[in-house]
Automatic annotation (TrEMBL):
Keywords: Hydrolase, Protease. It comes from the Bacteria. One of its GO terms (molecular function) is peptidase activity. The lineage of its organism: Bacteria, Bacillati, Bacillota, Bacilli, Lactobacillales. GO terms for biological process: proteolysis. Pfam families: Abi_2 (PF07751). It comes from Limosilactobacillus caviae. This is CAAX amino protease.
Length: 303
C-alpha cells in the first residue's frame, strides 16, 4: 500500500488482498465509514497476518471487527487501572514528603531538576501542561502558575504532571530510601505501566507487536522473578503487552484500596466474558493464547 488516499471500495480490496474474507461488502464499507476507520483496522492485519510462521490469523472481516472492539474495550478498562495508579502514586509521594521533617517540598524538586542533563528543558517539560510558546518562540507559563516556576514546590509539580513526568521523582526517592519496597517496585515497574497508560489514554491499539512474544527484549531479573513467582509463564513475561498489564494490576493491587481494585477486576472479568462471546472466530493459536493469558493475569491479581 502506498501513501495515496484509498476510496472505501479500495479499502475493501486491500483487506481482501491481505487475507481478510468479506461476505457482505456494503456492510463492511458502512462499518469503515461510520464505526471505525481503515487505518486503525489494518494495523491488526499488518501485525497478525505477517507473523513468522506465515499464519493468516485474521481471515475474515467479522473477526477483524471483533478484535478491534475487544481492543477498544480492554483499553477503556485498563485506562481506569492506570489512572488509579497515577492518583495513588501522587498521593503516596506527597505522603512521604509531608512526613519527612527534613524535606520542605521545594528541595526535592530542585534536586530532581538539577540531576537532569538539561535542567531547564526538564523544568519546562514539567510545566508543559500549563504553558505555551508565543509567536516569537518565548516560553510562557500560564499566569496562575508563573509565581511557582522559579522555585516550584512538589505539590504544584504533582498537580500539573501526568504519570510519565513523575518517574524522575520516584527514582530519586527510591535511591534515598532503598529499604522502601513499594518505591523499589514502583521504580522497576514504572516504564511498563507508563507505556500502557499512554497507549490507553492516546487511543493506540494494544494488539500490536507488543502482543507477540519477544524473547529478544530483556526483562529485568527482579521483575522476571516476581512475575514467575506470581505464576506467569516465561513466554507471558516476554510478551510486552502481558508484562505491562500484569505489572499494572500488581501495582494497582498494592497501592489502591481493596474496593477500588475489586471494581477494576470486575470490569476486566466482564471483558473476559465478552471475549468468549465470539470465541468460535478465533481458530488461530496466537489470539487464543493471548486472550487466555490476559484473563489468567486478571485472575492472578484478583485474589
Amino acid at each position: 500500500m502506498d501513501n495515496s488516499k484509498l476510496s472505501f471500495a479500495d479499502q475493501i480490496e486491500w483487506l481482501k488482498n491481505h487475507g481478510v474474507g468479506i461476505e457482505d461488502e456494503p456492510e463492511a464499507q458502512k462499518y469503515l465509514k461510520y464505526k471505525s476507520y481503515f487505518y486503525k483496522m489494518i494495523s491488526f492485519v499488518k501485525v497478525f497476518n505477517s507473523t513468522e510462521n506465515g499464519e493468516q490469523c485474521i481471515n475474515n472481516f467479522n473477526m477483524l471487527v471483533d478484535i478491534s472492539t475487544l481492543d477498544m474495550e480492554l483499553r477503556y478498562c485498563l485506562l481506569k487501572v492506570c489512572l488509579d495508579i497515577e492518583h495513588a502514586i501522587k498521593t503516596y509521594l506527597l505522603r512521604i514528603i509531608t512526613n519527612d521533617p527534613d524535606e520542605d517540598g521545594y528541595h526535592i524538586v530542585q534536586e530532581v531538576i538539577n540531576r537532569d542533563e538539561n535542567p531547564e528543558g526538564f523544568k519546562r517539560k514539567l510545566f508543559s501542561s500549563v504553558s505555551h510558546y508565543d509567536n516569537n518562540g518565548h516560553f510562557i507559563v500560564n499566569e496562575e502558575y508563573q509565581q511557582f516556576y522559579d522555585n516550584p514546590p512538589i505539590w504544584i509539580i504533582i498537580e500539573i504532571s501526568s504519570l510519565g513526568k513523575l518517574r524522575s521523582f520516584v527514582e530519586y526517592l527510591s535511591r534515598k530510601r532503598p529499604n522502601n519496597k513499594t518505591l523499589q517496585q514502583l521504580r522497576e515497574s514504572f516504564k511498563y505501566i507508563n507505556r500502557l497508560r499512554n497507549s490507553c489514554a492516546h487511543n493506540r491499539v494494544l494488539f500490536n507487536k507488543d502482543a507477540l512474544v519477544n524473547e529478544e527484549e530483556p526483562v529485568p531479573h527482579n521483575i522476571y522473578s516476581v512475575l514467575r513467582n506470581d505464576d506467569l509463564t516465561s513466554s507471558e513475561i516476554h510478551t510486552p503487552l502481558l508484562l505491562q498489564i500484569s505489572l499494572a494490576l500488581r501495582i494497582h493491587k498494592t497501592m489502591c484500596s481493596q474496593k477500588s481494585h475489586q471494581h477494576k477486576i470486575d470490569d476486566l472479568k466482564e471483558w473476559c466474558t465478552r471475549m468468549q462471546r465470539n470465541s468460535d472466530l478465533y481458530q488461530g493459536k496466537i489470539f487464543s493464547d493471548l486472550f487466555n493469558s490476559i484473563c489468567n493475569s486478571i485472575t492472578i491479581y484478583s485474589d
